[in-house]
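Researcher: Here's a chain I'd like modeled. Treat it as a single chain, no partners, no ligands.
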Amino acid sequence: MIYPQNAIEKLGFTEIRELVKEKCLSEAGRQMVDKIQPQVKADQIDRFLKQTNEFKNLLTHDAPLPVDHIYAIKPLAEKAKVEGAFLSEEEFYRILLSLRTVYAIIRYFNEREGQYAHLELLFEHLPIEKAIVRSIEQVLDDRGRLKDNASRLLLDLTQQITKSEQEARKRLDSVFKQAQAQGWTADGNLTIRDGRMCIPILAENKRKLKGLIHDESATGQTAYIEPEEVFHLNNKVRDLEFERRREVIRILTDLTSELRPHVPLLLAYHGLLTKLDFVRAKALFAIDIQANMPILTKDAGINLVQAKHPLLLLNAIRDKSHTVVPLNIKIDDTDRIILVSGPNAGGKSVCMKTVGLLQLMLQSGLLIPADDTSSMGVFKQIFADIGDDQSIESDLSTYSAHLSKMKHFSTFANARTLILIDEFGTGTDPQFGGPIAEAVLEQLNKKQVRGVVTTHYSNLKLFASHTDGLENASMLFDNTQMKPLYILQVGKPGSSYAFEIAQKIGLSKEILESAKTKIGVQQKKIDTLLVDLERDKKEVLDTKFAVTKREKELIELKAKYESLQAYIEENKKEILKKAKEEAKVILKDANRLVENTISEIRSVKADKEKTKAIRSKLNQSLDQHSAATTKPKESKTLVKKESEGFEVGDWIRIDDSGSEGEIIEVTKNNSLIVALGELRTVVKANRVTKLRSKEKSKAIKRIGGVSTTSAADFHPEVDVRGMRTEDALHKIELVLDRAVMIGYPSLKIVHGKGDGILRKFVRDYLRKYNHVSRFEDEHADRGGDGITYAYIG
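Model: Modeled as a single isolated chain. Structure tokens:
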């Protein structure tokens, strides 16, 4: 399928496999990654892609999969299969931990039945055999050691050994104290020699203590003696230990025999853990490269939308100063072969390699870094001619090696073949290399192959412009700043910009003029035309970008206008409502005043002087009431906002909402940044009123003194371990906002290590948070990359 075989390496697929291997937890999983090869069966590829995509969704949106212990069960099962063999305590403990992991995984998916349909196929009809676990747990403790009560004999022997060791030690201590009292011992305490406890005795006194000499010091001044009376007790302990060891072997042998009938099931469990580890590694890698699952089609075509080269993308993520320009390319029945031209170092080869590498990844069951609206078909063959393959052993020159591949391409390629050719036709005299390349391209086009070809040859560009099935494309170049834009433009060929680049490098004007006279007039016209076309395309692209930007600004202005209009309408209704209420009060007061006046006039029986006085009093009351309603109201506790400016530290009340807060910043455009407790807001100066001293004190007391005590109450550490991604980011956002508000310099975020998923999302969020200047790992001795320090500035 792949020709030549080293094309996999030249396209970068070998590096992709190594990166996926790094994500595996088990050696069996890594071996499975080594066997990854592009497949040609669409249903098989579809199943692999959906399994990886489901695992990616699981890792990013669901609770962690319980994969704490994954050991290689297969070699242990193979060992247990041999009659008479037995597994050690450590080997049984590995099986126990692995089985617990398997059962936890099966329960995990059973609880989510139907949610991960393609992953569930990995362990369909696989039972949970608890009898195996119970048998092992009866023999082993939680640390993987054989229980003392695994059998009655074992318990009895263990107790005898303990008792004999205590008796021997007690007797040895007694002899040691006696020897010390006699002055026989050398400096130091009891020591072990040849596995036996000995007393250090001075060489001149070694005959005074009966026992076995096990060793002497390097100077010969100290002898290490095991007392005779202790020697027999130690021998007894040794014999008991031998008996205990025989009993342990018997227990392990019986347990292995009990396990032997379940060997096929153990092998099935091993296969499940290996496959899950393999798919998990692919999903983790997909998260790293921001990959998605494209639409898999039956046609041999490619439609990549916002595609990126995965290796370049990883480098750009590590080196934040670089970005990867996305690629958009379509290969279908109409445009089968895309002929890419343009300047050197303009991205032609990267474009071609991106198409080839993503096709290899897709057919190997790996998600690709492209928009999920992309669609890709399945190719039976992938042929590539990349780089210099000259061979001394085969006596092939560079051009001969290229021709050898062209022979294979033209002989074996068909409509289900993807060809990738870099610098087509180079390696020999362009006068002959160009026509030969054109003839080969014509033959490949007749076979209706699909592919991407890069070239500088003008005859190939001309051939593609009037041949069905071929389509010119170029890498855009900024000929004013003389730098590539790395954007693929389909439909027009591109210039090599040979003279422009040579001029920028500094080649003398005399040489350039001489070179221009040596090239053909027709070639010069073609190249000039291509440069002009490139310039026109650049202007159109810039104009399109400017129009798009202006449209976006107009949409934002329209939204602001509509918001402002809604705000005015809402306040208008509120003002009218208040005016009507005040009018009702005024009318009620006026009616009461008139009624009282009439009553007084009646009471004085219409006396002229008294009636005149009453009317004067009525007019005076009406004048006062009118003056009170027309004069602007002024709060006893507020200061006119027109009369005074605002400064940091002033306390204000927002007119619209009545909220009170402290000014923490005054901006140049007459806006105020106000702290409302632990929240911040931005308001215009003409929408707030400054508080007097008494009102300010009340406000501070009411809010709780946030401006003076919030820093003392603030705890600059947040622990999000075990939390879901959305909950963790929400919690971090709240603490970050408060830290920014009170001016705290840094924040400690404890997210744990695990698979690194939560750490990645936390750090992606910190990169987007404007007030975070940088972040770094905690010191390795205090948590390493399980803790992130975010610095605020």
